[in-house]
């Protein structure tokens, strides 16, 4: 039916028509809000490269978590900033570690809020790498030795009451190792959300300032994925699912929308996308200059991530989006 009979503009004329014919709906139900937990009391310290994001102590994190739950956001993702770091990253699995303390306190105050723990050691190691090093100056991490540390970390997180563990290290075989360790300790009901396709991205810059987790030497390219690859991402996802992942993640989101789409088309499991710190910082910086309309740009970005196929979006914009969606 060619023009002049077919006029697609007819359905765009009013806000009501646009609402009725909308193909993608962004909902509060899809959001996960990341939180950084540090030691101390009464702490709310803004992260300079991520305006509007803070380092919280356990007590202030509890209040923040309650507000997040009141906004209807279903889940948070916890990162820990330990007081002391060491070569092995033992703070990641300490029974009284920072994430373990926060999880216990938050689950007590807001039992229905889903608490996801990032399962990795880079925030806890003195060298900032996501695993056990072969030698003090070699960033080529020992894969199999790291699996034990990750499995211990996941079990310790489950013991402290987290609802989901999310390994973000990119070691081979870690989902299987974590699944076996959890099952062996009676945590067969705890799901694994794996950072299956996590790229070696420059968009993590602000996060590494927030978590003080930049590698002290070398980079993460021997374990995180090479940005040009999409077939490899599908292979990583397939392997994680075979090992027992319940849901998988693509990270970052914006420069990887094709990866999200390819994953959506191939796999029938929940797919999460991580709208990372650098993506957030770019929007915040431009909005602060008055160069972009923050609400419209943020809504457009998150809608795009959902349109690409993400079921869940992990984003520092979650509270803002939830507030706007409620208006
Ligand atoms: C830990 C981890 C990182 C992020 C999430 N988990 C940092 C990294 O891999 O360097 C980045 C999140 C963000 O940039 O918002 N491995």
Could you give a short description of this structure?
With 327 residues, the protein is α/β, with parallel strands linked by helices.
Structure description:
By secondary structure, the chain is an alpha/beta fold. It has a single domain, classed as Alpha-Beta Barrel (TIM Barrel). Helices cover 38% and strands 17% of the residues. Strands 1, 2, 3, 4, 5, 8, 9, 10, 11 and 12 form a ten-stranded mixed sheet that branches. A two-stranded antiparallel ribbon has the order 6-7. Helix 2 crosses helix 3, helix 4 crosses helix 5 and helix 5 runs parallel beside helix 7. The longest helix is centred in the middle third of the chain and has 17 residues. The two termini are 39 Å apart. The model has no long low-confidence stretch (mean pLDDT 97). The structure holds ligand PBG. Ligand PBG binds next to helix 6.
Q: What value does the Rg take, in angstroms?
A: 20 Å
Q: Report the helical percentage.
A: 25-40%
Q: Classify the secondary structure makeup into a structural class.
A: alpha/beta
Secondary structure: number of strands: 12
CA-to-CA gap between the ends?
A: 39 Å
Tally of helical segments? 11
How large a portion of the residues is in β-strands, by DSSP E? 15-25%
The ligands found in this model are: ligand PBG
Point out poorly predicted stretches: none
What about the largest sheet? 10 strands, mixed
Structural shape: globular
Query: SSE string, helix = H, strand = E?
Result: HEEEHEHEEEHEHEHHEHEHHEH
Q: In the CATH scheme, what's the topology name? A: TIM Barrel
Total domain modules: 1
CATH architecture label name: Alpha-Beta Barrel
What's the CATH H-level homologous superfamily? Aldolase class I
What is the average per-residue confidence, as pLDDT, rounded to a whole number? Answer: 97
């Amino acid at each position: 039916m060619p023009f002049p009979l077919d006029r697609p503009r007819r359905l765009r004329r009013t806000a009501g028509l646009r609402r009725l014919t909308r193909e993608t709906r962004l909902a509060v139900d899809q959001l996960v809000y990341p939180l950084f937990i540090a030691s101390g009391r009464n702490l709310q310290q803004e992260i300079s490269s991520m305006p509007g994001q803070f380092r919280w102590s356990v007590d202030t994190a509890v209040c923040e978590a309650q507000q997040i739950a009141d906004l209807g956001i279903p889940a948070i993702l916890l990162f820990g900033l330990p007081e002391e770091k060491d070569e092995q990253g033992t703070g990641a699995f300490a029974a009284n570690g920072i994430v373990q303390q926060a999880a216990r306190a938050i689950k007590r105050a807001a039992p229905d809020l889903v608490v996801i723990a990032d399962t990795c050691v880079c925030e806890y190691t003195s060298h900032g790498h996501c695993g056990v090093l072969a030698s003090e100056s070699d960033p080529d991490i020992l894969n199999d030795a790291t699996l034990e540390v990750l499995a211990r970390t996941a079990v310790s997180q489950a013991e402290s009451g987290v609802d989901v563990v999310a390994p973000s290290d990119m070691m081979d075989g870690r989902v299987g190792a974590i699944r076996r360790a959890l099952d062996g300790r009676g945590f067969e009901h705890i799901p694994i959300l794996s950072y299956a396709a996590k790229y070696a991205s420059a968009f993590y810059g602000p996060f590494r300032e927030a978590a003080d987790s930049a590698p002290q030497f070398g980079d993460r390219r021997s374990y995180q994925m090479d940005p040009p690859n999409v077939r490899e991402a599908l292979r990583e996802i397939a392997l994680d699912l075979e090992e027992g992942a319940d849901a998988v993640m693509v990270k970052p989101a914006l420069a990887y929308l094709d990866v999200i789409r390819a994953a959506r088309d191939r796999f029938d499991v929940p797919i999460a996308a991580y709208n990372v710190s650098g993506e957030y910082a770019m929007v915040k910086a431009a909005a602060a200059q008055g160069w972009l309309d923050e609400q419209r740009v943020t809504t457009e970005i998150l809608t795009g991530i959902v349109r690409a196929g993400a079921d869940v979006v992990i984003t520092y914009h979650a509270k803002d989006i939830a507030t706007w969606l409620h208006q």
